[in-house]
Amino acid sequence: MKHLNAINRKAALVVASTEADVVALQQSGGGPPQQPEKPHIPPGCSTVFSPGWEADHAGGTAGLCSPVERDLFDCHMGCFWPAQVPDQLNHAPDWTAKCAVAQKDWRKIDLVFPG
Amino acid sequence: MAKTVRLSVVALSSAWALALMLSASPSAQAPAAPAAATAKPDVGIPVTDQVVIKACSGCHRPDDKQQLSRISFRRTTPEGWERTITRMMALNNLKIDAQTARAVVKSLSNSHGLAPEEARRSLYEVEKRLGDESFKAEELNGMCDSCHALGRVLGQQRTTQDWHLLISMHRGWYPIIDRQTFRRMGPAPRDRDASGRLPDLRHPSEKAADFLGERFPLQTKEWAAWSASMRPARIDGTWTLSGWETSKGPIYGKLVLTPVAGSTDEFTSTTTYTYARSGEQVSRTGRVSVYTGFQWRGRSTVGGADASALREVMFIEPDWSSISGRWFMGGYDEIGLDVTLQRAGATTTVVGLDHTGLRTGANGQTLKIYVANPPASIAPRDLDFGPGVTVSAVTVAGDVISATVDVAGTAAVGPRSLVVAGTVKPAAVTVYDKVDSLRVTPSWNMARVGGVVFPKMLARFDAWAYNNGPDKKPGTADDLKIEAVAASWAVEEYKATFDDEDIKFVGSIDAATSVFTPNVDGPNPQRKGERNNMGDVWVVASYTPPGASAPLKGRSHLLVTAPLYMKFDPTVTP
User: Fold this and answer.
1) Catalytic residue numbers of A, as ranges
2) How large is the ipTM?
3) Residues 91-110 (A) with a CB less than 8 A from some CB of B
4) Structural domains in chain A, sorted by start
5) CA distance B110 to B230
């Protein structure tokens, strides 16, 4: 950003985000790198399904479906997340029976322990 | 007549064409045909326990070699067998009472279990540890770990045919999985590779099953050796306990195992331990079952209270000299102790210290040394930290030796062994001249929103002081890990998305204890798009070392993410 000047508010935000160290870390002697070099995808989380359940491709949550309730019916009916969301085919055919609109009735869906 | 002849010719041509097509079909040209197609039946492990036969043979018919279909062609952990039984109950209409199910799990874990060498690679799965997958194989890339941890796979041994059947089971229950990962979408590769070989036309799941059959087969020399010599683990008696609880620090104590009458693999446990940092003392009683001669599965409580229950998953070394593993609780098994037990001998032994850093040029530094079989009395000459470290006072009370030491300004920097009454504890303390940096462990962590319908998953951290080591450069292999320090904790924005203001919504961290408590589950009307209280933040530790003017900081990436709506919960407890 040495030779560029922001000319609108959005550009100013970009400049601000690059100039301010995100956590303002000051290590003596330079300090070791504190940021993970590669994104960390929790075990069991997706690198193929896009986005993943717990993390997106970059190892963060920015790319996740949110609110997750908006998409739960689809996950349930399509068995899309068989290890994370009860599936309609096998484990919980009536899981969403009490939940007409997930975004409103999400409190009515239960945690399922298969078996 | 002519018409008939012509038809015959056409038919013959079709047959030839079919033969040609078949010769060019994927199965004919694949470098390794799936073992499911092999004519010779696999050799399994007979099932001889009548309890298992009675419970399972309604569907799994025995053959003339006492092999039950599927069951005889697989070996796995107690959790693996438990998961299978719960699946049979949920999806295959199995009716089984809890007592019989426990007996079946124990029997199959012993007759169709894992050898210690085989079980080590999937310990993180049964110990419920969060971390990065370390097992890498191109053949499994995205196949299994798209849905669940690879640990579920690594804790199994099967024949190649049975690995293929396992894939088929997944495809049957979850048809969409074909399109997600199991089958190749798009045309098959047609060109030869650089070395002139025909392209591998197997689908990804077929490659994976073949790989697993080769890498994790039913019959191994490890299992042959272990199953031939397996015997009840003679672990009754007294053990010293040392451990670590993230955010609470080291624990030291004692565990006594008493055999349950009439059993060779069941024990009751009585445990007492102290948090060295706070002095908090804990007494627990519990019960332990040992599977396959080395897999400790236990449950213990404080005074029988369910809220205090810890599930215990431990690995008994085959020489019965030490036992290590994890005791855990919480909505997602995220709260836990790393525990190591060592056989308590007759001599004085150092179990651990309350802290491990000794600063050069500072007098009057105190240490608490937790020991087994403490001496009746002790003098400064009984302790030896090496050159430059002088013991000025020492007392012993119970299992704790309290020492005051002076460290010379010229003392050499580095790890030191500690000698107590003639016994040596290697690398017991670290002498350092300066704290150069602070690192947070784990370097990334995960929490899950909850508290309304689903449980919260908490996250906890430790802050470690480091010295740059002999090369005076940070972040190199010779850096000295000094000790965990009492840092001050905060969360800061992790800038992945503009103005998402995650830190306002994701939850809060206790500044003193490092325990992060996520916010509630469900859509948040206060958030743009009614998004959940999910997000990314930095967890930042601040610590000002003695004599320093500015705090050092370290940080860890915390994902605050979605709950699990379904939880497979296989932890075998007695």
Assistant:
1) 71
2) 0.81
3) 91-92, 103, 106-107, 109-110
4) 1-64 (no CATH), 68-108 (4.10.940.10)
5) 9
